[in-house]
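Aim 2 progress update. The chain analyzed this quarter is reproduced below.
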Amino acid sequence: MKKKILPIIFVLVGLVLTQCSTVTYPPNVQSVEQHKNGVLITFNEPTNGANWLRVELLKDDVVHVLSSANQNSEKARPSLIVSDSPMYEGTWELKNSDNSVEISTTALKVDVSLTEGIVSFTDMEGKLLLSETTRKFSPITDKDQEALEITQSFEWSADEGLFGLGQHQDGDMNYRGKKVVLAQENTVIAIPLLISTKGYGILWDNYSETEFNDTVEEPYLHSKVADEIDYYFMSGNTTDDVIAHYRDLTGVAPMVPKWALGYIQSRCRYPSFKELMDVAEKYRELQIPLDVMMISYRHWGKYGLGSLKFDEEFFPDPEGNIAKLHEMNMHTMISTWPGFETKTDNYRAMKEKDYLLGFQNYFKAEVYDSYNPGAGKLYWEMLDKNMFQKGIDGWWLDCSEPEYPKLFSEADNYLGTGKRYLNTFSLFAAKNIYEGQKKTNPGKRPFILTRSSFAGQQHYGAASWSGDVGNSLKEEVGSDFETLKAQIPAGLNFCLSGVPYWTTDIGGYKGGLPSNKEYQEVFTRWFQYGTFCPIFRTHGERYPGVVASPRNDNINGNELWSYGEKAMNICADFVRLRYRLMPYIYSLSAKVTFDGYTIMRGLPFDFSYDTNVFNINDQFMFGPSILVNPVVEAQAQRREVYLPSQTKWFDFWTDQIYEGGQKVDMDAPIEKIPLLIKAGSILPYGPVVQYATQEYDEPLEIRIYPGADANFDLYEDEGDNHNYESGKYSLIGFKWDQNTKKLTIMERKGAFEGMSKNREFRIVLIPEEESETSNKTSHVSYTGEEVSVQL
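Predicted structure tokens:
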């Protein structure tokens, strides 16, 4: 889907409401103009701070609200994040009275108080979802430009949970009673999407420093630089519906390459191709599955950051070495920064065209203007020539906030001031690479790992990780249980912010001695958690750490064998589990693209009816079926697990059944974490493979966890191109009928080159009653036609 950044145009079909002759508006109202998809209300005097207020329908359950103290009643600038979309074509009704205007669709009622200028949203059953209260506009000067500082207050209900807003590592998930600042920096990701357990979301369309504050009498969203208050209200029956609306507005998340969902091996630095290749070969020798070797920073050596070159003394023959990795069915990603040291040719090329922002990052390299289309095009051309054409498969965008946000906020960019566009640098940095690669080589899916993100960034094949070293010791991603515990709600809220792919530096970025028994436990527990993140990657600077040398080498390894035989064997088992779940994971990745789905799911996604889950920070669903319960305490042998209500749960390891709606003390020795499967689940479970796209002859196991009807669509395609966009993929639907105990394998839909037309499935029914002592199994030869299995 091509994303266009265009202003939304209002179509005027009547100057005033037809009922004007029978309605007397309050003295503060100049006019109420009916448009094809909404109303514009103009005030004679500022009402609740506003000179005008627009309410625009985009769908039956998506509403755009604009208001400002400026006189011009048009949106001042095109949105950077909301795609141009077709004009609303639904049926809606407008009712007006002396003091209010009500807009009704088949899904929503929007009421506007004319005397107070307040907008409220109600469902069709009359339940109030959200209401504005006060709004404020304060004139400011942003350098030489007139602007507004804005505040919109809302009224939340007492039983409501609020989530999203990006990634914040304070250990909280539910933001009720909290204050959160949205300003990009290392370890902090600002995404202005707020999700409510009442079935709605607010997309706040502003790019400056923003504050959410629920600690005051009138909770609010506040932004420092704006032209108007601009937000989108999205409602739905489920949180998935709301996230799907967000993606409709800001851009579909494309399919990531299948290899990106496998295991990614990294450490702070591999000082040479030789060491990197030795590590890759050892993984294959040990038969520990692996898909990606990361090439970290300082590979440029004497040439300097931004040269986009390999120092041949330590990284000779990049084409040949990368080709060897490809022969081993491994891929490469490389660390690239948005800056250029002054000694590099690329610096001079950027400088000549005035494509630099005038401040430097950690390496004293000047940051490029990612907003400038010419700079973005040139940056990709440099990457393409020096990296992509040598075989590099993916991009690791470090310091994409960019680094030193205060300096960035003081620098002008192509679009305007740094303060106005503070949070969006990474959005454009990812866009430049995604669009550049897709145009240069449409046969290979872009995959980007970036330290920052913003609304809409999912549209550019981008995942994020939780960062490394913040502005203080408190903010760094350390290597202890306390830090691990904080990662879980940070990642869950990130995914509740509409961007589906996220990960951490498994083991923590800073510190950790691999030979230390206590740290081996931290690493093992973090690794078990990381197995169930959308992206699965180790990384870190292990102690004794970086030594003073020209190459800034990292002494200690970060490979699984670095942590001793016991830890290695446990972690290797979890890697194998990840790959056995690959048919499940890749099918969920397709749901992300086609259905607006989210893989890593805070419990409010699926159990918003159960208020007990609102403040659970350390449990989550991995897809629709797997409840993941990381262990975040030292020397733990058990952990307490809350089982969401209105369903039963199967212990993944033992098949023991538990009733939902209770806390259970579960077995959690170092070898495992509690994993439970939701009753009414179909779980495809493959054989152990060494890389994500490896073909196998063994039957694919289809596990049925009964207790309720179940469905699952097994998705397959070519794995690393864009042919899926033209329908070249297959779906095999599985449907379990709880009453008849019958599994139906539906007729295959679609096809792609290289598809296996004949499949072997091993159907396994997990016992539903404790009296049943063994699984029921059946073998099915599938040729693409519908077939049923009685179990």
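The chain has eleven helices and 44 strands. The CA atoms of residues 160 and 198 lie 6 Å apart. These observations will guide the mutagenesis experiments scheduled for the next reporting period.
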